[in-house]
Amino acid sequence: MGGSLKNEMTREGSKDAATQSAVETAYRRIRHMILTGEMRSGDKLLENQLATTIGVSRTPIREALNRLNAEGLVVLERYRRGIVADFSLEDAIEIFRLRAILEGHAAGRAATRISDTHLDRLQDLERVMEKQFEELGWNEHLEGFDKLNAEFHAVIASAAESPRLEKILASSLELPASIFNRYSEPVEMRTRRTHAQHREILSALKARNPEWAQAAMNAHLFSLLPTASGSLEHEAGNVG
Amino acid sequence: MGGSLKNEMTREGSKDAATQSAVETAYRRIRHMILTGEMRSGDKLLENQLATTIGVSRTPIREALNRLNAEGLVVLERYRRGIVADFSLEDAIEIFRLRAILEGHAAGRAATRISDTHLDRLQDLERVMEKQFEELGWNEHLEGFDKLNAEFHAVIASAAESPRLEKILASSLELPASIFNRYSEPVEMRTRRTHAQHREILSALKARNPEWAQAAMNAHLFSLLPTASGSLEHEAGNVG
DNA sequence: TTCCCAAAATTGGTATACACTTTTTGACGA
DNA sequence: TCGTCAAAAAGTGTATACCAATTTTGGGAA
Questions:
Q1: How far does the CA of residue A194 sit from the closest CA of chain B (Å)?
Q2: Per-residue pLDDT tens for A37-51?
Q3: Which of A77, A104, A168, B103 could share a disulfide with A218, CB 3.0–4.6 Å?
Q4: How far is the CA of A57 from the C1' of C5 (A)?
């Protein structure tokens, strides 16, 4: 495929920015609220309230909620009001296990398929992440990190040239960031290791070595995988 | 519960008879039409027509179509009419590759988790499939086979005790049966081998051997995986 | 034929109404 | 005080009508 990369580093408005459909708007807004922790597990999702808040009618809200329900971020039961899904430790483990399997596979495929343009993009992303980490410290850089990190993984998934795999990774195996902080080891510890692992994945991709790339990605994700018996002595505290 | 009088023209309910919602009805009907080949790639999906055919209003039809679109069985573009998705050889290959990875993983997990009840169920299913094959021949047994085979795989996915894995297998990696016939080797050839493989998977599960189960499931699915250079000399011809 | 354009058809979305179910409320009695 | 239970309120599920945006169709012109 031609390398029509030119991703947008801007907030979210792609230059195209054709009028978003109402369901897209609603879907993104609600999803964002959940993923960022603005809404928390168990919070109620009332169709009428969301409709007035977001500024569309009930119909697209319902479609958006159905989508989020299919993706596992929202729990819908007939005639009951929707609530933000709750993610237990086991849920987090399951998701990371599946991500490790699928993203590992994706990295392996990407190794023999990724374009130089995409490799450069990955390099840039990692460079920016590390720079922000140095400048802002592990506490302040988080906001930007999540976005850049997501793109880093998305670029690799895209380079695997397996559209269904890409879609599954993008829509069925997500976790709210807050859950990440709840179950994983402290942030600064895992951030340093993450950057080293990203560099290794990048090296494997540059070397066009599928097995290495798959193994490196696997190691990366398994190292993030919270364990029931692992080093989780730190308190959850406020997750906001 | 008060006995609510409803206009139920479908006697789909078994004993429980949980009244299906209109979107469930629409979703199942349309999905069934696509998977069985009653509707074929490129066929138009008109909301009004489907609404009158199925006997519900446009609203649940639209939700059903969106769901099927998310699952990849239907292609929706804004303001364009929906059409039944087209599955190329590469699509089929991709789906079988991903199924092999994920169902292999599922079988491995199932080996140490599956109950004796479920093992018995698998045994029964395979027995019935083989009996029907003997009695009806490879041509006539197909209709029943698809259903039983789907349950065989679904039982294993369920026994893996990984809800997201189960959901992905059930909703994101499906193929219309007709495509199966279009791209795979002739039916009678693969049917015989399939039964042998099912027996091996069953043996591995009974032995509670995860590696064996995973490998056997992998082999099963990879053997079904159509190859661009494989033994596909037979003509596609009419796919009806 | 091919191109172009207006008419018809279709989807996306809003608004409203109502049936059905869950959830809340509040009075009642032990 | 505490539970119980039925009525009231709230919320979802579906139907319907309507309009806007866009595609699709069909016919006429070059």
A1: 25
A2: 999 999 999 999 999
A3: A104
A4: 35
pLDDT 10s digits, B86-141: 999 999 999 999 999 999 999 999 999 999 999 999 999 999 999 998 888 877 77
Beta strands in B6-112 (DSSP E): 44-45, 74-75, 82-84
CA distance B168 to B162: 10
Q: Report how far apart, in Å, the C-alpha atoms of B73 and of each of B67, B68, B134 are.
A: 9, 5, 33
CA torsion sign for A173, A174, A175, A177 is positive
| pLDDT tens per residue across span A164-210 | 999 999 999 999 988 877 888 888 888 889 999 999 999 999 999 99
CA-CA distance, B51 to B59, in Å (whole number)? 9
| Partners of residue B163 in chain A, C-beta under 8 Å | 94
Q: DSSP H helical segments within B141-186, as ranges? A: 142-159, 163-171, 177-183
Distances (CA, A) of B198 to B75, B96, B208, B227, B230: 34, 17, 15, 21, 23
- Our CA-based measurement puts residue A100 at a distance from the nearest CA of chain B, in whole angstroms, of 12
What is the token pair recorded at B151?
A: 């349950």
Nucleotide nearest the Cα atom of B26 (by C1'): D14
What letter would DSSP give residue A75? E
The distance in angstroms from the start CA to the end CA of chain B is 47
What is the reported pLDDT for A6?
Answer: 35
Q: pTM of the full predicted structure?
A: 0.88
- Is the Cβ–Cβ distance between A61 and A11 less than 8 Å? no
Q: Which residues contact B116 (CB under 8 A, 6 or more apart)?
A: none
What is the CA B162 to C1' C20 distance in angstroms? 34
| Sign of the C-alpha dihedral computed for residues B52, B55, B59 and B65 taken in this order | negative
**CB of B10 nearer than 7 A to strand D:** no
Contact with chain A for residue B148, Cβ under 8 A:
no
Of A78, A95, A168, which is closest to B21 when you measure between CB atoms? A78
CB under 7 Å from strand C: A 21-24, 56-60, 63, 78-81; B 1-2, 4-6, 19, 45-48, 62, 76, 78-82
Distance (Å) of CA B212 to CA A10, B120, B191, B201, B231: 49, 19, 22, 8, 27
> d(Cα B12, Cα B19) in Å, to the nearest integer?
9
Question: Starting from the edge strand earliest in sequence, which strands make up the sheet with B82-84, in order?
Answer: B44-45, B82-84, B74-75
- Burial track B166-184 (b if 16+ CB lie within 10 A, e otherwise): bebbebbbbbbbbbbbbbb
Question: How distant is the Cα of B146 from the closest Cα of chain A, in angstroms?
Answer: 23
User: Would you call A237 exposed, middle or buried from its count of C-beta atoms within 10 A (0-12, 13-18, 19+)?
Assistant: exposed
Nucleotides on chain D within 7 angstroms of protein Cβ: 11-16, 21-24
